[in-house]
Amino acid sequence: MTRTFIMCKPDAVERGLVGEIVSRIERKGLRIVAMDMRVPEVALVEAHYEEHADKPFFGELVTFLTRGPVVAMVVEGPDDGTWHLMRTLIGKTKVEDAQPGSIRGDFATTTNENLVHGSDGTESAAREIGLWFPGLA
Q1: Which one is catalytic: 48, 52, 84, 117?
Q2: CB 119 within 8 A of CB 125
Q3: Looking at domain 2-136, does it have CATH number 3.30.70.141?
Q4: pTM above 0.90?
Q5: Which of 11, 84, 94, 108 is disulfide-compatible with 113, CB 3.0–4.6 A?
Q6: Which stretches does DSSP call E strand in 42-96?
Q7: What is the pLDDT of residues 19-72, one digit of tens each?
Q8: How far apart are CA 70 and CA 68, in angstroms?
Q9: All residues at 6 or more sequence positions from 81 whose CB lies less than 8 Å from its CB, including other chains
Q10: How confident is the model at residue 81 (pLDDT cuts 50, 70, 90)?
């Protein structure tokens, strides 16, 4: 079993979509092994998205993710491709590219607020789990 990090962003919480997102994860056959709803601190969000620190949208991203509660999750799946399986379930980052049937394809309306974050690899999953759930790292 391998684990990946998933986060329902503030827009998903505000729109009441957390249950739908969790349901899709579970119906896919994956298991949520940790979940926490919180308003993240600026330092945590900055560390989480450190690879984007030099990009013009970084400040807006930090403001967005700290404006209200998020639901952080550790999701467990059967093999090393769990992160990839979740990325497919979530859908493409750009709303106009997100496939119907994916979370973003069915529910996201703008790319800047696209409902869900998913780790983009085994290494990023381990790093993100360590940031959000230090006891599970």
Answers
A1: 117
A2: yes
A3: yes
A4: yes
A5: 11
A6: 70-77
A7: 999 999 999 999 999 999 999 999 999 999 999 999 999 999 999 999 999 999
A8: 7
A9: none
A10: confident
